[in-house]
Amino acid sequence: MAAPTQGEDSDDAMDEFMEKFKTQKYKNAFSESNWEEEFEKVPMFMKTAPESIDPEKHPDLACIQSIIHDDDRTPEEKARGLKDEGNDYFKEKKYKKAVVSYTEGLKKNCTDIELNAILYTNRAAAHFHLGNMRSALNDATAAKKLKPDHIKAIIRGAQCSMELHNYPGALQWCDEGLRLLPTEKKLQELRATADKQKREAERDARKAKVKAKKQQNEKETLLAAIKERGIKLLKTEPSQRRGSDSEDDDGDRGASRALADLELDGISSQEATGACVYMDEQGVLHWPVLFLYPEHSQTDFISAFCENSSFMDHLAVMFGEELPPWDSERKYQPQNLQLFFEDPEKGNLYQVDLEKSLLNVLQHQRCSVKAGTPSFIVLVSGSPFSKQFLSGKKVQRLK
Amino acid sequence: MLSDSEAKELLSFLTLETRPDVKGQATEYILGLTGNRDGCRYLRSKPDFLKALVTLTRDPSIAIVKDCYHAVINLSADETLHQPLIKETDLLAILFKNLLDPEYVFADRICTILSNLSRHERTCRDVFHALQEQKIGLDKVVEIFCTEGFNKTASLHYLGPLLSNLTQLPEARHFILDKDRCVIQRLLPYTQYEESTTRRGGVVGTLRNCCFDYAHHEWLLSDAVDILPYLLLPLAGPEELSEEENEGLPVDLQYLPEDKKREDDPDIRKMLLETLMLLTATKVGRQIMNKKNVYPIMREFHKWEKDPHVISTCEKLVQVLIGDEPEAGMENLMEVEIPNDVEEKLKELDAKEQEQMEKDKQECEKKQNESPEALER
Question: Into which family does the record put it (chain B) (predicted)?
């Protein structure tokens, strides 16, 4: 940049100065190649302010900034300056920086109440745009405390409450504001929206309650039906883990826990299908059932075995047309199969009459349902594996 | 009554400066006078007594003030006393000033008096203008009414009937129906206010009066106000509706709990139906009401209602709703709601209604001669 000389008033000095240009190129001129870059560095011609002002790179800018934040000014002036700075950042959508500026302004603790209310309100706005609803609400509240008629703070407070889904709170803010300015359109709109959402939330709560009640009734009916049939449900580990309050076998808590177990275990069943026993419109139960094939370490899962269906009904289909791929010896044919259920208490096995219905079998004295899923062991009659598997076990065969 | 000299003497005792025991006896006597019609009529001709009574409401003794308010309540129950009270005393100014005071223990009595005074159009207009002149305005009254616990010792429920009475004036309705403000919206939740039949009835009366102005119907039924659910909720019951029916209802009427109670008071139920009826006056109104699918509510209500007058109003409403462009939903209602035997009943009821209306008319004339909100001594 051309260094201005302190010219005297005389024409001679001026003439001399002008003469110089004709002969000397002045120092520090912009070069043709990088003049645009240089231009950008001149504070007056800058299009955007740099992110941080390094006194080395931008000495002039640093100088100007220090003038702004000169410590000789009063707290009010400093706070005002910081407010303006915050506002500028806000306009550029640099909300985090705006928050910093406003905070600094508030720290000055100046005595101008209106200014402080504005600082709080503006900071609330910055927080709002950053998504910090709670901070924004706190600031709006603080602003209102300082200046109860500060309508911008009230509008902001209502908006924050809405975002936080506190509709009754939002309504309160709106009503306060409307008391001051009854015809304020924005507040009326906010109020209408808050009211609408509040009522929708109330409806959702009612709906959920109705649904929960319905589910509870269904559960209770199901449990009653199972109990009525004399089918025993086994409590499994999760409820035992619950420790001290697993005392209640009978009574409501037991019932709902048993059902909860049903649900829990239905979901946590090995097949992870979420299948659970259910009752159809005719009041018939359908169970998820597991068939275990210990010989080949395989299982079959039937998601809905009607209690009135017989085992043979299912086996005939499962092993009817095609035998399973793991049946290498092709011996798992329906007429060869033997089914057993295990009494978990004593470890005894009981053979199942395949022509009987599932209900019939489940009602057996020693039969119980574990994890909400009846399971049966499938062996091939007379096979070496079967002999080996059954040896050493107490087996109750069919008569 | 009193002779002129007796009256003069009594009057002299009715001043703030009089000895408390004498003052007390004098006010007691006046209160006794107001307890019957002749006494009231007598006092009508004695504006000085009225003035004195009103002045004594400023008395430091609570017992005296109490008696004065009692007396004014009795007087205000008599229509012929309205103009003298308003014109000869500064009653209205005192009433409004104290109404705004959250600590004033006699605020409920003030509301009763104002409610009485606003019953008939002429004095009602005076009350309304006094509100404006005292720079209070209807919005302050609505604000106080809608602020829970504004006055710790007074419930202010009688502001309900006051508002209802005021809305017989178009200028009052104009204020309540102001689109640029949020006034009527504040009143709506009170159609379900369980704690006070007076408050509830006052609000429903206000809404009904406001619905006489057809021009505002579309706005009232729009989201900006959404008056419909607030009129239907008191008529809706705990009966379980199918999920499909629920989803079609306005949000506030969906999935109502098992303990939902309907409006207890048959007069209020009738007013609600009348208000709904008014809203069907315009085609737009009818269309909106049909779109919002309120049939399940009216259907269940019709099954539940026992009072013949209310049933009749309900059926008239349903008829209007059906009577327009017939649609699938409406035909169902026709079948379910009004089978042949009910048609017969309707004809019977119509005849009975004519009879009843005659009886009602006679009773009404009788009632107007008695004191409405009077506290007998």
Answer: Belongs to the HGH1 family.
